Fold each of these.
Amino acid sequence: MKSKNKSRGVLSNFLHLFLPEVCVVCGQELLEGEMGACLSCLYKLPKTNNYKIKDNKAEILMAGRIPFERIACYCVYTEGGVLPPLIHNLKYYHKKEIGVLLGRMFAEDLAESDFIKPVSMIVPVPLHPKKKKSRGYNQAEIIAQGMSEVTSIPLVTDNLIRVLHNPTQTKLTKTERWENVKNIFDVKDKLLFENQHILLVDDVITTGSTAEACGIALQKCKDIKISIATIGEVF
Ligand SMILES: [Zn+2]
């Protein structure tokens, strides 16, 4: 796997000598200083600004499922919109720079807000180690990195962990599926998160079951507070 990635890197470096980098959304040639997507596409991102709104859609979705302080989603994830190609390229085409960029842009909006001020640690939703190994990185961690750079809030990537690989879920009932997901996260050193306000970061929120499962694990830490931030909301 490693050598495959490496050879892809050499090939793409070689191609870059001849082919200009293009925006993953519109295909236009990128200008100097642009990363992954051009500025005019980034400008079109459908931001929710829901960090300013208490009881926003995401918070209503998660209400009563886990105790949390606040939830914010940077953009609406609409098919055919600007965000899906960005997330897709981040996850499947090794465009890590897109994750850093989205994390930074989101954090710049959040900076100085009441949403981010009380947060003491940024924690990405972990990928299963096997998946991380095959992909080479965890996309949530890349986004969290960008957020940590802008806010100077420490990034903690190795304390919330994924313990089981999800067996195929297709033949399970909805309840069985949830039972299966519920216990996949754990906290290694519970003292580290004690008394902390954690910002849990993921790429997108859909049903909220991943955030909920992380929340169940995080709650084992004494006096923890949990907020959640995702780049996209899909609902
Ligand atoms: Zn573009």
Amino acid sequence: MKQQILKTFRGVHAVFRRRQLPNRIAIYGHELPPEQRQHFAACISHLVSMGYVSVNPREYAAVEGPSKRLFVSFDDNFADWYDSLALFDRLGISCTFYVTSGVFFDRSTRAEQKAFMNQICQPDEKPTLSVTQLKKIVARGHTIGCHTHTHPVLSQLSSERWDREIAHSKRVLERLIDQKIVDFSFPFGMRRDFSSTLSAYCQGLGFQTIATGISGQLYQHSIDPMFVHRTGWKSHLPIAENIKNLQLDARIYGKLFGRSVIG
Ligand SMILES: [Zn+2]
């Protein structure tokens, strides 16, 4: 019944809640394999040609800044981010990569990597990002954010495990790349996967932004840095489909259900 209600709401949004592109666009994706890079490049080039300027999450949420901002991010330790560095350079964008600190290819066991891949519903034959690759990504000027140590559903964990998953992860990443980590995205990204208590805990650790994966929330009047909503990016889909998703104003849907309006 609930699924049917959600489906009906999504259908209504697809028809009646479509607007001009918002001035601030935040997107997130996961892997970026060679066969998907063409669609990705076409859409980013299109947005850049419209005057959107690539920014990190703090610049995205700031009151002052370019009138048109594009925050491009990726979650989940895919090694093909490293293979896409030349493409990001060509497109003239700087991205934010939210990484899970306990599953780097050269710093964790095969079993830990496999458990992570199962957790994010990916076939596990692909190698995860390595620390060597991570450091090269940083050297190219991209931003690294924290995405926990083992990618659990945080809202289902007892608070005793928060230190291990979040504070420890932040420290590990800071040691690895020798930079402060101040941006966080929580695994699975929907409202049910996080809480206001967790948000306060993250702020206490020094995080300045927290990103969600609740699509269709780009038309906010002001952006709360502790609740930066990103719209899901489907690299396997052509430009028109992704632009349509960015044009959905699903603020009411987001308030009611706390989840993504796109499938
Ligand atoms: Zn994730």
Amino acid sequence: MKYQIVKGLTGSSVKYTCDGCQTDLRSPLADAGKKDTCPTCRAELIVPGAKELERRKRLQARKEQAKAEAKERKQREREEQKQLAIAAEQEKRRQDEVRLMQEIEAANAMKQNLRQALDDVSFNLVDHDWSSGAPWVYECVEMGTLSFAWNEELSRIINRKAQEGWEYFRSESLVASRPAGCLGALFGGGPAFFNVVVLVFRRPAVIAKVERHYGVT
Ligand SMILES: [Zn+2]
């Protein structure tokens, strides 16, 4: 039996002619291979196109299988990437920890070396060798204008410097000058004078030298 597959709005159908009465017939492709009766001559017939239907079903199944496989592959890849990212993060954290431990070890070793070097330092003003420079190094801290709580302010600075290893030596009150600004100079003004309080601290030069050697200042 000759037949033709045609595409319609609701899906494919099969067009054929009844062997008994030559009437043109049309059935859904899904009915191919099924028994039917010609509506004109009542002859029993089998809707043609079974092979085509089978072929399309196989094709559809293959397509769906490929789609499922692609989906599974994608999911597997996503999972793998997630695992890789987790592993990379863990490795980074491990390396950070190693680096931190190394830094702590290096700092401890440095401290140890510095302590040993300082143990060997002998500071003796009487025997001081002046050809190697003054026995003290000095540092000045400017106080600016003193507030009413000047004693607290002084104590705070002196104690902070003491913790850094500096001994309070003395204070100086100086008169400093600042050149007149543009406007002041325009009206014939001279430089402005103001009082500065300077705190002088000192520490043995040998210790400062050893600390400089170990990068501690
Ligand atoms: Zn017929």
